[in-house]
Design brief:
Blueprint (H helix, E strand, L loop, with lengths): L15 E5 L27 H13 L4 E5 L9 H9 L6 E6 L4 H11 L3 E5 L5 H8 L4 H13 L6 E5 L9 H11 L2 E5 L12 H4 L3 H11 L2 E3 L8 E6 L5 E5 L12 E4 L4 E3 L7 E3 L1 H6 L5 H10 L21 H4 L2
Parallel strand pairs: 1-2, 1-10, 2-3, 3-4, 4-5, 5-6, 6-9
Antiparallel strand pairs: 7-8, 8-9, 10-11, 11-12
Helix pairs in contact: 1-2, 2-3, 3-5
The structure holds S-adenosylmethionine and iron/sulfur cluster.
The site of S-adenosylmethionine has 19 residues, from β3, β5 and α11.
């Protein structure tokens, strides 16, 4: 009998897919992109119909969580259509989105109505000038309005994602924690990863470990390890006097590979088995060459599974091994 579940060579079942819906973005965050970026021509990227079909097939193979990401997913035209179609798939338990928040004031309610389960919003600074420096083109006020709109639309467990860089925004650790507490939001600190060659700073010099950040927060708010397991790379903590959870995503300091249940799909339809290396499979060919037959796509997915490595190896001291930028892999 043919396998119906995506299980890799180390017995890990793939239940979580991060789907990049665009490589484009209205921001140019210094750790993610260069100021001048060349984006993919339209015919190279999967159509919304192809993204939906891929989602449908993945869910039929046991995937229960899909996160839409990018680039900035909310600048993809008709993204609400895709959300509506995916959310209606039987077997999909969670459909989530990672966004920079710039379009949320306009889209939070339509996304909620379309069936989106949860939202993560990136926020690296609460100072307008600095926010602009880090994102190069972003407006803090728009993102704050977006956070408010998401709350008003009724999204629960909204999570802020924050990349801390030593000497750039690490003096705001407590300000951002306090903002999350006031707004009753969860917050995750993400260690900067060496994806793509950037010019603005030396990643090894701006690197600040999550252990360091956790230490600083603990002085003011003692952190208690949360017992709920998220299945992701984040370790979560609670504060005794707040509903907000504080998470730490630490690809450098802690290894989360053993329980890795996820894969990524780039907007070109490249299945990436691991964020930390280049093993991939082309899903665009079976999607485009066999429009009415899912089997070649399913065969390609199963054939790719043994490529998932046991673990990744990031090293900030070396030139990036991964030449693609984060906007290609979808965070
Ligand atoms: N544009 C959306 C956003 O910013 O939330 C979604 C895509 S973005 C690539 C997803 C997440 O990856 C963001 O939280 C961003 O801060 C993070 N990110 C981007 N480049 C990174 C890097 N080199 N290291 C660590 N996190 C990074
Ligand atoms: Fe755009 Fe997100 Fe990358 Fe910032 S982190 S440049 S918002 S894709």
């Amino acid at each position: 009998m043919q396998n119906t579940r995506l299980i890799d060579g180390f017995g890990r079942q793939i239940t979580y897919v991060r789907l990049s819906v665009t490589d484009r973005c209205d921001f140019r965050c210094v750790y993610c992109m260069d100021e001048e970026m060349t984006f993919l021509p339209r015919q190279h990227i999967l159509s919304l119909e192809e993204l939906y079909r891929l989602g449908r097939v993945l869910v039929s193979l046991g995937v229960s969580k899909i996160r839409l990401t990018g680039g900035e997913p909310l600048i993809r035209q008709n993204i609400v259509w895709l959300v509506q179609k995916l959310a209606a798939l039987e077997g999909l338990k969670e459909l989530t989105l990672t966004t920079n928040g710039s379009q949320l004031a306009r889209l939070a309610q339509p996304l909620k109505d379309a069936g989106l389960s949860r939202i993560n919003i990136s926020l690296d600074s609460l100072q307008p000038e600095r926010f602009k420096q880090i994102t190069r083109t972003g407006q803090l006020s728009e993102v704050l309005a977006g956070i408010k709109a998401a709350q008003q639309a009724g999204f629960k467990h909204i999570k802020l994602n924050c990349v801390m860089m030593r000497g750039r925004n690490d003096d705001e650790i407590l300000d951002i924690v306090n903002f999350a507490r006031q707004q009753q939001l969860d917050l995750a600190f993400i260690e900067e990863m060496p994806l793509g060659v950037i010019t603005e700073h030396e990643r090894a010099q701006t690197f600040i470990s999550n252990d360091d950040i956790r230490q600083q927060i603990s002085v003011v708010y003692p952190l208690l390890a949360a017992t709920d397991v998220t299945g992701g790379p984040a370790r979560y903590y609670r504060m005794s006097d707040s509903n907000s959870r504080i998470g730490f995503i630490s690809p450098h300091s802690h290894n989360f590979c053993d329980t890795c249940n996820r894969v990524r799909v780039t907007v070109e339809g490249r299945l990436l088995l691991c964020l930390g290396n280049e093993h991939s499979a082309d899903l665009k060919v079976p999607l485009r060459d066999f429009v009415d037959d899912d089997q070649p796509l399913i065969d390609t997915l199963f054939k790719a599974l043994p490529l998932k490595p046991e673990r990744h190896h990031f090293d900030l001291a070396q030139e990036p091994q991964i030449v693609r930028f984060m906007n290609m892999t979808g965070g």
